[in-house]
Structures are given as structure tokens and as C-alpha cells.
Amino acid sequence: MKLSKLPRRAAFALATGCLLGAWLAPAPAMAQGDAWPSRPITLVVGYPPGGSTDLTGRVVAEQLARKLGVPVVVENVGGAGGAIGAQKVVNAAPDGYTLMLGANNEVAIARLISPAVRYTEKDFTPIGLVASQPMVLVASAASGVKNVDDFLQRVKAQPGRYSFGSSGVGTGLHLAGELVKQQGGLFMTHIPYRGVAPLTNDLLGGSIEYGVFVLSSGLPHIRSGKVVALGVTEKKRSPAAPEIPSLSEHAAFRNLDINIWFALLAPPRLPAPIAARLRTALNESLQAPELRKKLEDSGSTIATPVADMEGFLASETAKYKKIVDYAGIRE
């Protein structure tokens, strides 16, 4: 029946009902997926500005913004070795608008150390690995130690006499130092610092003999001659500093292989279409020449895609648990 044949009031009611029905009907799933993202995305970094995780996060945010067409804003949520920021992301709505640039400390190690950390590595939707960096064992210039043989000889000659510093209890730097102790059969005291800056000051002043840095933090002091690099903690030398040997080149540390990695993560239960778009955007971002240059210049190696990120995080957590159990590290 044509509307013109109906009374005016009935025709208006029928037309209005049809319009309302169309408006209220559920949108097709593809259209809903295509609507994301429609507003800025927050990228949480669990540390103050200026560190290696923050630098990596800002470089990634810049590229993701280009790929996704919306701003990606870094939010620094420091505290508890990154765990406060991580908990914020675990609690966030799984809508793709809150992400995290996370590292070993808060993702895989924190819950092994502190009973206050309630989340696990399984409480994230992993998007992908971004990059990794070796750590580097250094000696104070005042110590007179020049290489690994000097280091081993002195520490073994006076068990308990020497100390090594890190940026805090339970950090990747701390665990790397404990792994050096375990594999080298060494008795040293760990001195935790509230960040890299005070550790650096004490090393430069000769108040502590040894320390563990992320490579990017240690390189300026190594190249200025203020501290002596004994070796990086990855199995191979770093392309960013090929002049520094790997600790694994020495027979005492041939099985030593540990690094700091950075990953893009999302809250649990992230819808699969959004996760897929994020993975594509991340993979494309990691191919951008400007991103690669910035991260490689900082000492990082760009990650290759990991097919099973859940498995990777589980295996990393298991690896750190062995070190934590050996060292008896608990809060």
C-alpha cells in the first residue's frame, strides 16, 4: 500500500516506526569493528619519563598513531617497578583504548617477588614483542678491574667482600646479577638502588665496585671511560656496541643469556578483531626506518614476530622463577 493512500497521521506513524527500527537495529559486526579506533589511545608506561621503557614506548606510540590514524598518548604511571601501571592496564576496559608498553619486570617478574601483585602474565592480551636490549655488567673505574678474568679472580679471592648494584630488588638487572653469581660460583652482596641515577653516581664515585645496567643506560658512561664494561648478558654481542664482549664468551658464563624485552600488551578479553588490527599496526610500525634507527641507536634490537606470545611469556616467567628461587628473593 502506498503511503499516499493512508491517512496523514497513519502514514507519519508508519514512516517514523520504520526509521526508528532501522536506527535501533544492531549494526553489522564488521561495521562495529571498522569504527575502532575513533578516539585517542592511551599507552601506559609503568616508569617515569627518561628510561629505556619510556623511550621505547614513545617511539612505538609515534608510529602506531600514524598507522591507526588517531593520537597515541604515552601515560607514565610509575611505581612498584612498573606493577602499578600494569595493574591499571589489567583493570582497564578491553576496548582497545588502553594499552601498555611493558617489560620483563612488571609482566613476568613482579608477581614472583611480591605477594601484593595480584595479576599474572596471563592477565594480558599480548599484541607482540617490540625489541630487546642486553644488560651489561660493569666495574667502577676506581676498582682497577679491566676484564672478566680480573673480576672473577678478585671476587673469588674475597667472598662477600664485593657488591653489585642494580636499579631495584626483583628487576631484570637484579636477576641478571644473580645469574652472574650463580653461574660464576660467586658470593657477592646485592645493593638495590631507587633507579639508575643513584647507582651511576656511586659507581662513578667508587662507592660500589660493580653494577648492572641496561645497555642504553650504560653506554655513555662506558664510552666516556667512567666505568669499565665487562660484558653484555646476551649470548651474542650487541650490534649497538660490538666492541663489548658477551659474558658468554668466557667459559664461566657460557650458558648466560638474559635480556630486557619490551612488548605491546592490552587488557584481558580484548576483542579478536581489535587485537588483529593492533598486531598488524605493530608489525608495520616495526618496519618503519625511523623507528628502527631510534631504537637501534639506543642499544635495542628490533624483535622478530613471535607466533605464540602466550607461550613466550609463560616460558620467560618460568625462567625468572628459577633465578628468584635460587637467590631467595621475596618481599
Question: How would you explain this protein's 3D organization?
Answer:
The protein has 331 residues and is α/β, with parallel strands linked by helices. The protein has two domains: 40-133 and 260-327, D-Maltodextrin-Binding Protein, domain 2 (3-Layer(aba) Sandwich); 134-253, Periplasmic binding protein-like II (D-Maltodextrin-Binding Protein, domain 2), CATH 3.40.190.10. The protein has twelve helices and ten strands. Strands 1, 2, 3, 4, 5, 6, 7, 8, 9 and 10 form a ten-stranded mixed sheet that branches. Strand 1 (41-45), helix 3 and strand 2 form a beta-alpha-beta unit. Helix 7 (172-184) packs across helix 12 (309-327). The longest helix has 19 residues, at 309-327. It is globular, with a radius of gyration of 25 Å. Mean pLDDT is 89; it is low at 1-33.
Count of distinct structural domains: 2
Structural category: alpha/beta
Cα gyration radius (Å)? 25 Å
**Level of helix content?**
40-55%
Low-confidence stretches: 1-33
Mean of pLDDT: 89
Secondary-structure arrangement, i.e. CATH architecture of the largest domain: 3-Layer(aba) Sandwich
Would you give the CATH topology of the largest domain? D-Maltodextrin-Binding Protein, domain 2
Count of helix runs: 12
Order of helices and strands: HHEHEHEHEHEHEHEHEEHHEH
Distance between the first and last residues' Cα? 78 Å
Overall geometry: globular
CATH superfamily of the largest domain: Bordetella uptake gene, domain 1
Query: Would you count the extended β strands for me?
Result: 10
Main CATH class of the largest domain: Alpha Beta
Task: Give the biggest sheet.
Answer: 10 strands, mixed
